[in-house]
Amino acid sequence: MVDAKNTVARRDLAGIEANLRPSAGPSDTDGVRLVTARYLSPPVREELRGRGLSFADTTGNIELSSARPGLFVRDVGADADPFRRSGRPRGTLKGEPAARVVRALVDRRRSWKATELVEAARTSVGATYRVVDYLESEGLVTMRDDTGTFTVPDWRRLLEAWSADFNTFEVNRVSAWIAPRGVQELTERVGAAGAPVPYAATASVAAATWAPYAPVRSAFFYAEDARAIAETWDLRRADQGANVFLLEPTKLDDVALVGARARTDGLVVAAPSQVAVDLLNGPGRSPSEAEELLSWMTDHEDEWRS
């Protein structure tokens, strides 16, 4: 059975699946259920795979699976839509407005109206509508037509989608330093003394607040003024062997500091949602730490979502 479309968005997939599974008889487990389109984005392909549907697009993305007769075919085509008209912006969660909207949607558990989201995210009306429209097309928000509101059905999937477009090490100016007495001594001293400029720990140091994973070897801090922080904390510039990394926004953008809070020891840490995304894009064991933190967030939603 084939459902051939011009375009496919995540919000279309439930209906497509229903069309391709018209019966529940024994023969329903046989054969191939195939979705075709000019182009299928990576998130759409991932969800089609999760729903057990085969797919193919004209760029060469194909996954064809059959239990009887036994068959599996996979090939990879384009990861960007070659048919998008010139001048039309590609749907994305890159940029400050998207970051602010995603953080607001994830950190607050509620139904939203667009005007309320504009105020909470501190973004323009136009930017907010563009982001929400993209999120709806990807099935990351669910609209309620009768009330004009929308909700986030799965905050973890939204965070993971954001992490695919947001990379801490690309959107911030990163500088490497050495804390001569080690990371633990630094965090204890900073927590006790504070800092004259805003900062927030992220990645492993912050994640250990909620989901300790392993001894922390390096520390990452958001800092509005990296040089001032380094002088205050007595850090030394490092060409190699760095154990402290300062992330300084490349423009006036404090979204990473939204929701930052002080621990009982005084150290200021970024919000769990920000920390999780930073770990998902981090080096080494960071993605594994992200999974631990996301598991904690799932089990303790009342402790971090308002």
Protein structure class: alpha+beta
Strand order of the largest sheet: 1-2-3-4-5
Number of helices: 13
Run of helices and strands:
EHEHEEEHHHEEHHEHEHEHEEEEHHH
* Beta-strand proportion: 15-25%
Extended strand count: 14
CATH architecture type of the largest domain: 2-Layer Sandwich
* Biggest beta-sheet profile: 5 strands, mixed
The low-confidence parts are: none
CATH fold field value of the largest domain: Beta Polymerase, domain 2
* Backbone shape: elongated
The number of domains: 3
Instruction: Report the end-to-end length measured between terminal Cα atoms.
Output: 45 Å
Helix content: 25-40%
Average pLDDT score: 89
What is the CATH class name of the largest domain? Alpha Beta
Gyration radius (Cα, Å) is: 22 Å
Characterization of this structure:
It is a single chain. This protein has 306 residues and is α+β, with helices and mostly antiparallel strands. It has three domains: 2-75, no CATH class; 96-165, Winged helix-like DNA-binding domain superfamily/Winged helix DNA-binding domain (Arc Repressor Mutant, subunit A, Orthogonal Bundle), CATH 1.10.10; 168-304, Beta Polymerase, domain 2. It has 13 helices and 14 strands. The chain has helices at 13-20, 42-50, 96-107, 114-121, 125-137, 155-165, 168-171, 183-193, 203-207, 226-233, 272-280, 286-299, 301-304; strands spanning 2-4, 34-37, 54-57, 62-66, 71-75, 142-144, 149-151, 172-178, 199-202, 219-223, 236-237, 244-249, 261-262, 268-269. It has a five-stranded mixed sheet with strand order 1-2-3-4-5, covered by helices on one side. It has a five-stranded mixed sheet with strand order 9-10-12-8-11. It has a two-stranded antiparallel ribbon with strand order 6-7. Helix 4 packs across helix 5. The protein is elongated, with a radius of gyration of 22 Å. The model has no long low-confidence stretch (mean pLDDT 89).
